Amino acid sequence: MASPPPSAGPAGDPTLTAPLPITNQRPAWRDTFISLRIPNFRRFAISHLVAVIAVWMQRIAQDWMVLELSGSVTAVGITVALQFAPFLILGPYGGIIADRYPKRILLIITQSMAALMAVAMAVLALTGVVEVWHVYLIAFTLGLVTVVDAPARQVFVNDLVGPVHLRNAISLNSSIFQVGAMVGPAISGVLITAIGGGWAFAVNAVACLYTVITLALLRTDQLTVAARAPRSKGQLREGVRYVMRKPAIFWCMLMGAFVSVFAMSTPVLMAAFADTVFDSGAQGYGFLNTALATGSLVGALASTRRTTLRLRGVLGGAAAFGGFMALGSVAPNQMVFAILMFFAGIGCLWFITGANQLVQISSNLAIRGRVMALYMMVLIGGQAIGGPMIGWLAENIGAHTTVLIAGGVPLVAAGVFAVVLAQKGQLTLRFRYTVSPSQRRRLVAIVPKSPDARSHSAV
């Protein structure tokens, strides 16, 4: 495993970090789930799995309910935007809160509030009085909760496992999320068809309460709690300056902006294809989301085997995600489209886990909450812009052209950034026409042009 990042940089500044720790040896298969050997993380992971399945059940039910009530894909995009807009505006302040206060207590509060919102939606839906504006209001309120929940949850992983197993825990967290994203939509699709989507909200309320109980019962003496940042002026500006002078973080965020605005509004795209292209209804919507999430699970698990952590790998994942999405524009039927979404999911999670790991490991614990909030603001907040935009495009120029744009823009952006980073890192492509029988070697590799270029390790 990678060596833990130091608590302070070479100059003693607590906001600086030493050179990036890089894993040079592939971990043993028995260590694929090594972070689950830590009791606190294992309990948290189980509750996280339950919660994610329930959240996806609620999200699919919510989006399909809006589509049925309004008959508009744009309305689904507005729902997505309202859920993510608070993070776009207030995200950095959530990071300041995460740096100042105990993460476990923050998560107990946010999950309790999420449970109340789920109960409200369940009552409205099951009594048959729900209207689109109800969904808009609750989606926006949940967005406010996410402002604090998302950065606190990201940084809390370090409290659970410590720096040594952080990369493995991040990958497993992503795997758990994708298992939930794979199972939740499938269950929700069946549930909506059989007894109505209102029960999905009730299930999520119970799952949120289970998470609260799990957090309350964690062994606090086994947590690796970092020193909390004291209240002071200019903490937000300090976080922004930190990001700007750390190339590994800056380029991850820039690539994340293109991915989140154009390619991450997959629920809107899946709703458009299920409703207007394949005419497969709620079950088709759940099936397409499950295909995407299955690929994402494969990508997340593959990331646990990552031996090196570089920007070039992050860009490669983004390019694969966008490329397979763009190919969906010429899919002749739902099955082919679902297969392409499976491979898009692999690329998506290879990008997300790589970027997440690189951002966290590149930032010091004293400022990590603010850094992760800025990163999540880009990744989550971008969907507030992309959701209604993608919905409007799907309704006005067609689902096929929209998915071509949604995948094509991140693909082109990844290519442009790769050229820029190659020039900065003095990198080039090397083609090998023979393979040594005693050693596996890549036929095509990105390598430094000169020995001096090897110092650009983040590229």
From TrEMBL:
Cross-referenced PROSITE patterns: MFS
Chain spans, region Disordered: 1-22
Transmembrane residue ranges: 44-61, 73-93, 105-127, 133-152, 172-192, 198-218, 248-273, 285-302, 314-331, 337-359, 371-393, 399-422
Main subcellular localisation: membrane
Membrane association type: Multi-pass membrane protein
PANTHER family in alphabetical order: INTEGRAL MEMBRANE EFFLUX PROTEIN-RELATED, STAPHYLOFERRIN A TRANSPORTER
Sorted UniProt keywords: Cell membrane, Membrane, Transmembrane, Transmembrane helix, Transport
Keyword GTP-binding among record annotations: no
Location in or out of the cell: Cell membrane
Protein name: MFS transporter
Chain ranges of the Major facilitator superfamily (MFS) profile domain: 35-425
Organism, as annotated: Arthrobacter flavus
